[in-house]
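Justification of resources, computational component.

The compute hours requested in this renewal are based largely on the per-chain cost of generating structure records like the one below. Each record pairs the submitted sequence with a full structure-token output. That output is archived, and it is also reused by downstream analysis tasks.
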Amino acid sequence: MLVESQNIDKMCSFYVSDFHLEMILVPYINQKIDEKENINIITEKDLKGTMEVVMSKMNLENERKEEILNLGWEKNNKQIQDKTNIIVIGTEEYIKEKNKEIQEANKKGLNIVNCYEFEEVKDNIGNIINEHNRSLNTLGFRKF
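The structure output for this chain reads:
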């Protein structure tokens, strides 16, 4: 759902493991870096170790791998800025809480990718999809 007053574009993604999530996110992040856009990772759990493994196997320049690793894959709570791509990773409750904080920060030009673990939300996917404009998966974006 696009929040008109704040120009927030909300996308969702569903994953079955941390590695699967990272394989979904790397092409998206790589594209945003190419476009010189800001990226902010807000995660409930530490993903640094698995992301290091994924980066070691990716066919990317070492400089780009470091850039992606330096986005902050550990559990954190970062400051929200205007015109940022925000990736929120966690439980459904955590994602709702962080989205509320993002909306209350009253920033403009945000793209939010809410990443849900499939097993946790499989019975509620329909409702989650209705709250988003499109989804992100290994094939890219899909509009609803």
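The helical segments are 18-34, 48-57, 62-69, 92-104, 118-121, 125-130. Confidence is low (pLDDT under 50) at residues 1-5.
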